[in-house]
Amino acid sequence: MKIVLLGKPMSGKGTQAKLLTKRLNYQHISTGDLLRNEVKNESDLGKEAKEFMEKGLLVPDELIIRLLAKGLPEDNFILDGFPRTIVQAEKLNEIQTMNIVVDVFCSDEIIEKRTVKRRMCKSCGAIYGLDVPPKEDDVCDGCASELYQRPDDNLETIRNRLKVYEEQTSPLVDFYKEMGIYTQVNGEKPIQEIVEEILKEIEKVK
Ligand SMILES: [Zn+2]
Question: Rounded to the nearest whole angstrom, what is the distance from the C-alpha of residue 187 to the centroid of ligand 1?
């Protein structure tokens, strides 16, 4: 089964990808990881990518596609963070045909709330938020250190990211509906319930 997870920033799709790969014993494929591996192994692709990364530039689609053509397993994987545009989705179709696209859907309101509520612990790395608040405001449950808010976790930044998502990524909904492989789950429910819902959807197309 070849699965694509789709979702806005802060939709929790990364968490879902991790949990699902464990449950299904599938590979979790993120283009970021594939990229880092190639760079580490100093392959030709890696060297090319590194030039862009060192300049702080986005690695072009064409290179990411070559990376996927090389790094995608034949089957049983979850693709996370790709595709983000119609062009990327069309290119992906040329490499392999996905079986199901699961959209972990959340309203913008929830995404904004999650963003401004997120707090991190500098000492132990624990993450708190809307669904898992610390027992005491701004204090880590685990190690009692003070919690902090990442500078990017503000309304202006998240609204910009949501706008980019709306413009570039949300057209994928119709794209995959036309292919007949799109399905949506409610990303505002508790994490474990979402996992079960996604597993059910996957069973339907197996
Ligand atoms: Zn802590």
Answer: 27
